[in-house]
Structures are given as structure tokens and as C-alpha cells.
Amino acid sequence: MTDRHAAREEILARIDAATADIAAGVPREIPPQPRTVSTADLDPELMLEFVGALVDYRARVVVRPPEEVAEAVAEVLAEARSVVVPAGLDRSWLSLLEHVEIREDEALSPAELDTVDAVVTAARVGIASTGTIVLDHAPDQGRRAITLVPDHHVCVIRVEQVVADVPDAVSLLDPTRPLTWISGPSATSDIELNRVEGVHGPRTLDVVIVADED
Amino acid sequence: MTTPPLQRTSATFLGMPAFPKAARAALADTQQRRNLAHATATIRAKRAAVVGEVEDWEGLRVAGAAAKDDALHHLAERLEQLEANLTARGATVHWARDAEEANRIVVDLVRDRGAEEVVKVKSMVTQEIELNEALEEAGVSAWETDLAELIVQLGHDRPSHILVPAIHRNRAEIREIFLREMAAVGRPAPADLTDEPARLAEAARLHLREKFLRAKVAISGANFAVADTGTLVVVESEGNGRMCLTLPETLISVVGIEKVVPTFDDLATFLQLLPRSSTGERMNPYTSMWTGVAEGDGPQDVHVVLLDNGRTAALADPDGREALRCIRCSACLNVCPVYERTGGHAYGSVYPGPIGAILNPLLRGTGSDVDASLPYASSLCGACFEACPVRIDIPSLLVRLRSRVVDQSSRRSPEALAMRAAAWTFADHRRFEAAQRAATTGGRLLGGRTVRTVPGLGAWAQARDVPTPPRETFRQWWARTHDDEETT
Ligand code: SF4
After folding, report:
1. How far is the CA of B273 from the centre of ligand 1 (A)?
2. What's the domain count of chain A?
């Protein structure tokens, strides 16, 4: 305890001495950041950008009206035998799953999750310019581990959740929640810069974008 | 005012030859040069394309530099704010003056939890303090989980690039390393392993997954630490970071005090600057943010070790402190003509390339030959400044550090002055070839044997197998077999 305290005091004193030449209280000039959050709901071009960026990252993307989400989920999970879902997920999305064991996440251990083929979650926000989906692990997205250990992640996002750029997303997020930003499936370029998907995270990322047809 | 203590140059790097000598050896390694040229050119092209997509890249750079400067100029305040927020959210904050203190804190935490192994996210700061070695000494196995770091660790090697640490290894070498080494430390590589990248990645996935699933303690660094919220951020690609940050019961993050950024909003700036500068991607596959303990989700025992280790000494240098803005994106390495030819090992530090050439002398002083030679490891072409997302003026800093080394060397050994010869050698291919010829003399004496220790190369050579130097250079061979006369 005393040791920890001594180290803290000493480092802070070193910093004070090191920055003594800097006039105290110089106000920071924060350059203005764009903060008008526009969503793909209002801007079809954003939607195209989002889909394009997702596809660039080798995510698989489908766009469906709300009444066809269950169909889309069943299609992308045609090969799966088991799927884990968070407690708060909209159950209607799973209504067409046949021959698939559905396990609600009740604090499954990592080893248990390792036996599950896929996971279905909602999302918090999508970023058009980068093709990124952010999860804030609310009840419809579940704990961080469930979107990590199974090899296949199906993520359902509504078009009105998609924003233009990174600052828009940051301004919508709650920093007290754990946050996971996902851009495509897990990937490495460590072997002679060849891109390989699915090193440790999910090998396949399916994104179901829910948008009204008109 | 007392000057804050410098970082001690570690024994591993103290034994290393100064940059000119190390660079000479690296230059003789054609495989490495080919890998590096390919890698840096590829990343450079990708970076240029995605930077071009951003409407006001210059504005972002200015914002990034301003945020970092604000944090550095009010560092004590920001760190106290960070600590208060972390503590309020259930994390335990530790402070470490130097590498030894940081290692002791981590080792004690691991031991107290009765863990015999830890999983690690790629982190340069833990390499800087040589945490793996400290853990091993305490009987704890530390598993690197980033694919490149795994290759480096299994190969008993050192990283050579910030972003792609195993860039000096090709696929055939990686296959051999996996087949030879994996079995001794866990799940063996499949016997029919080929050198296809997908097969190699799969072998790593299976090997590491059993470690992720049973790990009780994980160790990470952080790309950013947000003062006004207490949020830590790790940026990665493979998902090994998420595994370490999410599955174990205990998470220990070692964070250099320069990693702090003032506000959560600043992440908007850095999450645009970093991936585009680093891998040349619009966004990296995974970014994890966590603020202390999240109830029922992830590690419930969360520790943060705030590390000085020479950073306050760099901060005290009004000329040099801007180097602490560095977000370790590696863009400056990829555009550097010197780095492209010598590779990372020649810099004698975990921080290679142009940023290493200024950061290491700032953190460690210029007392050792390796650090005194680093400011000369540059052609001063200015490409690194152009590429740097936080506008660190590396070329000007190098020039200032050079004059410091020269001032010092007039009082020190005459050979220190000779460090300037490095820049001179690089300037002309004939001088370089003469230097290379001098290096091959060693080859003649050794015959065809692979050498593990080369006199004068010290610890650097022990860290990896040095290819036997060719008995003669191509030019010598050509001269001998074609007109029997050595050209100069
Ligand atoms: S000095 Fe700049 S370009 Fe180099 S690694 Fe640091 S942030 Fe990137």
C-alpha cells in the first residue's frame, strides 16, 4: 500500500516538474467535429456506403423488410445445428429455425460456448463510412463472450441505426457499457501479408439489415 | 528541478550492436529485405488509398495532435482523473516507476491468483519492460496470442515491426517453427501442416483456443486510456484480444502514462486516424472498450498498471516531448527508406523505425552506443512526418538529437563520433558494398556452419539464428569468375 502510494506520488511529482514550463490552465482548443447525426434511414446513399464497406470486409450482407427477418436468419443459419441467443433478443427472428438447437445464454462457460455453432444478436449502431457494427452488449446483444467464441455471428441491424461516420457513432455510445466494434470477420495478415479470415473470432459474419421497402 | 530517471536499456538490447553494425548485418539478409519491401509497399499503397477517402485528413491530424498534447501538457491532472474513474468503476489502479516495479506488480497479482499461466494480447509496453521474462522467472508461462507474436515467441525470436512483428519470417519458416515448437507448449501442429497461410492460421487457432478457454488471467496493454470516463481501448484484428479481454477472470492492463487521451469524444478522432494509418484499413476488424468492471460480463477482477519507465524524462524534454504523442501506428516505418532496408532488429529496441530513432534516445538517453547511433538511422527525407497521424516532426527531432549526440561524444569515446558514418554509408552504394564486403570476411572464417554467436553481435545474435554470412558477395563472385579482378 505504502509502496503503491509512494510510486504514485513520485510519478505525479516527476510529471509536475517535467511540465513546469507549460503555462498552467492553457485552454485546449478542440477543433470542431461534425456532430449532426444523419442516419441511413433518411439517406439512401449512406445505406449504399454501409453495404459496400461491409462487403469490402467480406461480411455477408442481406437487406430485408421487417417481416422477412426470420426468413433471412433461417437462410444464413441453414448449416447450423446449434445457436446461442441473448435473453433480450426478439424471438420472432428465430421463428423459422428448424432442426437448430436454440440455447439462451445463461452464463454459459467458454467451453460450453465452444460447442455452439452460431450466435444471433441485435446491434447498437452501424457506421456507414467504415462498415462497422458496434455492440454495446445490451440485453438484445448479450455478453461479449457469446459473439466471440462461436464461429458464426449473425447480426441484425435496423437501417435507422446506421450513422454516417465514426464521430456520430461515438456520440451515441455510452462509455460505461462494454463496447465491441466489429468490422468484418476476424482476420489476420501476419503471414506474408496474406489475408486469412477467422483466426480467433468468428470466421463468418452475416449482417441482416432491416429496411422497409419503398 | 531534478531530472526524472531514464529508462534502463535492458540487458537484451545493451548487448546489441549499434545501429550501423546491426544494419549492416540486416542488409545482408536478402529474404528479410524482400519481405520488408513487399510489406511496406503493400501497406503504404493501402494507407494512401484510405487516407484519400477522408475529406479532411489534415484536420483530423491536427485534432489528434491537439488531443494528445492536451493530455501530455496536463498529464498529472488527466492521470488522476483516469484513476478516479477507473476506481469508481471497480478497477484497481497501480503505479509503476520503472520496468522492475511494473513487473513486480504483475507477477504478484498473477501469483496471488495461483495462476501458472497467462494469456497475452500483443502489447509493446510489456515487451519494453520484458514482462514475459519476469513471469517466466517466477514460474509463470506467458502465452502470446497474436499470430505474429506467437510466431516470434515460438521461434525464440524478437519482433521486427510494430504492426507485423513476424514480417521477417516467410511461410515455410513459420510452418517449420509450428511443427517444431508447438507440441512442447500445448496442442501440437497437425502433422500434415502445409505452408498455406489458411492452414497455418488454423493451426494457431486450435493451438491457442485451448489456452483461451482455460486461462484465468490475461495481460494486455491499451491503445488509449480515456481520462474523463476511465475507458480503456484495445484495437486489433484477430479476435485474440477479445478472447483475452473477455474470457479470463482477471485482467491486468499495463498502460504507459502517455496513452491517456482527454475525453471519450477524442476516440472519434483516433479511431479514424489509427486504422487508416496503421493497416491501411477503414477500420480494424475488432476494437474493444471497457470501463472498469462490467457486472456479469467479462473479467470481474480488473487491474490497471500505469507505467512511467522513462516517459517523464521524455516529457521533461521540451524539444522531444511531442514524441510521446505517438499512437504506435507504424506508418512512419512503412514509409522509411532506411527501415525498409534494415528491418526492425537493427534499432535495438521494441520501438523500431523513425519513431524508435527518436523515442529510444528520449526514454533511455544517449549513454549507450546503440541509443547514440539511432538519431543517425535516417536519411531525413521527411516521409515519416508526412505519414504521421499525430504530426510528430520526426526529422527535426532527429536533427536536434544528433547535435546532442555530437556534443556528448566530444566528451566521450572517439568511436561515438563514428556513428555518423552510418548515414554516410547509406548515402552511396559503393561505400555500402565495401562495408558489406567487410562483413563477409566473417563468413570465410566460419565456413558453411550456421552461427549462433558472432563475436561483437552479442545478445542480438543469440536471440535468433544469424544466417551464415556468404563467403563472398555476388559482386566479388562475379569479379572472380569473370575477370579475376575485384571491383571496388
Ligand atoms: S511516430 Fe507517428 S507515424 Fe510513427 S508510429 Fe508513432 S504515430 Fe505512427
Report:
1. 11
2. 1
Q: Assess contact for A32 and B59: CB atoms under 8 A.
A: no
In a domain, A5, yes or no: no
Helices B266-278 and B30-53 sit at what angle, rounded to 10 degrees?
140
CB B317 within 8 A of CB A22: no
Cβ contacts from A onto B, under 8 A: 237
Neighbours of A19 (CB within 10 A): 20
Residue pLDDT tens, chain A, 214 long = 567 789 999 999 999 999 998 866 566 766 555 555 667 777 888 999 999 999 988 899 999 999 999 999 999 999 999 999 999 999 999 999 989 999 999 889 999 999 999 999 999 999 999 999 999 999 999 999 999 999 999 999 999 999 999 999 999 999 999 999 999 888 887 777 778 887 888 999 999 999 987 6
The alpha carbon of B401 and the centre of ligand 1 are apart by a number of angstroms equal to 18
Domain B71-312 class in CATH: alpha beta
Rounded CA gap, B278 and B335, in Å?
12
* Residues 6 or more apart whose Cβ sits within 8 Å of residue B214: none
Chain B residue whose CA is closest to A128: B282
Provide the grid cell at A191. 503471414
pLDDT in tens, B274-285: 999 988 889 999
Per residue, the 3-state secondary structure of chain A, as one string, reads CHHHHHHHHHHHHHHHHHCCCCCCCCCCCCCCCCCCCCECCCCHHHHHHHHHHHHHCCCEEEEECHHHHHHHHHHHCCCCCEEEECCCCCHHHHCCCCCCEEEECCCCCHHHHCCCCEEEECCCEEECCCCEEEECCCCCCCCHHHHCCCCEEEEEEEHHHEECCHHHHHHHCCCCCCEEEECCCCEEEEECCEEEECCCCCCEEEEEEECCCC
Question: Which set of grid coordinates corresponds to residue B422?
Answer: 552510418
- pLDDT band for B155, please (50, 70, 90 cuts): confident
Asked if residue A165 belongs to a domain, the reply is yes
What's the CATH code of the domain at A62?
3.40.50.10420
Instruction: Measure B201 CA to nearest chain A CA, in Å.
Output: 6
- Domain hosting A159: range is 42-187+197-210
The rounded distance, in Å, linking the Cα atoms of B134 and B119 is 15
Residue B64: C-alpha distances to residues A129, A171, B67, B265, B465 (Å)? 19, 17, 5, 11, 41
Query: What is the identity of the amino acid at A78?
Result: A
Whether A160 is covered by a domain: the verdict is: yes
* A29, burial (CB in 10 Å: exposed 0-12, middle 13-18, buried 19+): exposed
Burial class (CB in 10 A: 0-12, 13-18, 19+), B318: exposed
Nearest ligand 1 atom to the CA of B277 is: 8
Provide the chain A residues 11-40 that lie in CB contact (below 8 A) with chain B: 11-12, 14-22, 26, 28-31, 33
Give A106 to chain B, closest Cα distance, Å.
Answer: 11
ipTM exceeding 0.85?
A: yes
**Domain residue ranges of chain B, discontinuous segments joined by +:** 71-312, 414-482
CA of B263 to the centre of ligand 1 (A): 21
Helix (H) / strand (E) element for B251: namely strand B250-256
CB B161 within 8 A of CB B133: no
Residue A96 lies inside a defined structural domain of this protein: yes
C-alpha cell at B148: 505474429
